[in-house]
Amino acid sequence: MELKQKAPQQKHQAHMNQHRFSDQMQAFGQWKHDLIAAVQTYQAWLEKNHLIQPETELRLFEMIEALRTDQMNIAFVAEFARGKTELINTIFFSDYGMRLLPSEPGRTTMCPTELFYDSKANKSYLKLLPIETRLSESSIQEYKKSPGNWTTIILDTSSPEHMAQAFTEVVRTKRVSTEDALKLGLFDPVQDADQVNQDGYIDIPKWRHALISFPHPLLREGLTILDTPGLNALGSEPELTLSMLPNAQAIVFVLSADTGVSKSDMDMWHHHVQALGSDSEHSRIVVLNKVDTLWDELKSDKAIASLIDEQCKSVARQLSVDKNNVVPVSAQKGLVARVRKDKVLERRSNIKALENILGQDILPKKQFILRENILAEIGSMVEDSRNLVANRLNNVNKQIKELQSLSGKNEDVIQHLMKKTRAEQDIYQKSLDSLKINRKLFIYEYQQLAKVLSLTELDKLMADTRQQMAGTWTTKGLRTAMQNFFEIINNSMEKANKQSHKTNVLLQTIFRKFNDDHGLIDIRPKMFLINKFKRDIERVNREAEAFRKSPVTTMTEQSFVIKKFFISLVSSVRNTYYTASLEAKSWHKSGLSPLISRLKEQKYQIDKRLESLRKISDSRETLQQRILELEGTAETLNNQLADINMLIETINRPLESFLEGEKTAA
Hints:
two-stranded antiparallel ribbon
């Protein structure tokens, strides 16, 4: 069995159409539970066989924790009044028999809202971060670590009415002066002039961010839903576009059939959704909502279907997407249908078609990404373990045949075999000496990479940039300092890319040489992949460019511009460097581990053979006893091989098998 990633299915599986997204999400959760159990079995096997090293144990522990806390993130993005929150209610919360999140006309989401399940909390809650925290130097992520800054409402999950009432907080606004709104970065004197009241005040969101945790079955399985506000609010919180949206496995972009694609819709699509298109791990689904506005009782069903189809084609052309990626639905009618158990209306709302896409496209892709990450982290380790067991089994079987052939043979044959085994000892020693030399070369190249990703050097650059920005008197000076910072960062990331490639090539050469010279077959090194960090920097660079050119930046007070630049953009760069340097450090520690393990195994097998031959030379009675021992060892190794193959099978198991299993059981 070959250990490899299996790509998501290109064609939709017909039998998956019979399951709602909730069924498929629970199948995904079951796959994760089974995978955790398989990794734990593998960890116990390594410990039992004295093959586990401290860094290996840490990697496996971190992997199990990562699987337990893994989130399936779906972000809903739309301009105001497109029915986005109603769509969330329909897909995920219709079982409550009412609108759980506020989505009636005139009550729209004013702040980014995350819905998830916090397994560490003993109560369900709604946490709200005051809008005034935008004046501080802390990011939303930092505030999440400081519960004292949030207003907390405990949720009574036994009462949907109580929960719905509590959730109305996310639509709250407050009236402030245009001066205060400008300080908060929530007022553009040009674009927002028509929103100013006669007394010079303007309505802004009361809350900066909302966190909702309760034990909904899908949320318990790791689903996280991000409900975002409109374009202006989305653009004013760069952390959304720099980390929250990029971390989502799927972006559901919602349009309204009664407005078509407006200018603000197009701006949101280009700046916040399409910009993620370079990352293959993101799915983008376009939903044309409110198609019930096209249901004309004076037209035939065929004419209405044709009109909706033309509307979808028009949207696809404007957004430059495949028409099949535009899904026409009526979220409002879908919710009504599910609450009233009206199958005809539910079918007409087309809500199941959207759920099928979520289940067929997003979940298999999420599973593929998670599987890819697992294989990148421990795939080579599992493969090495399997090869090691297979080699042990092969050596044991050879020894059994060798010893069986010794029956009745003279002492000269045994001495010849001992001489041959000692020659293998000499080859092993040469391999060890060669590894020491190559290890020094590898460490040197890694150190060059570590210098480029140095946080110390980055912190110096950040301090210099802050000083330059504080010392300038003009907007042009501010923009130049920002631009210079990112030019240096881009050059640094390019150097890191070249150095990581050079180090990867060296590691591949070392492994290839050992494979050729010492017969260590099928050992492949783990590469350090820097592309994902490059993509992160490119994304921040795009946001920085928009921040530099924004008229709000021009109108905003200098100290606030500097603060926002460092909180939202520079801190994101530092996080990327920090993660990259951590991964590089972990990689360099484990880079040569497969070779070291194989050489240790080689020494173990040589020592065991010499010991057997010495005992047999001293006493022929030992021969049959040793053959029996080896046959017992062979049986144990066959069982170990089966356990490792089971882990690989679990990693590669498709979601469809879980769904089919439920169907069979039913």
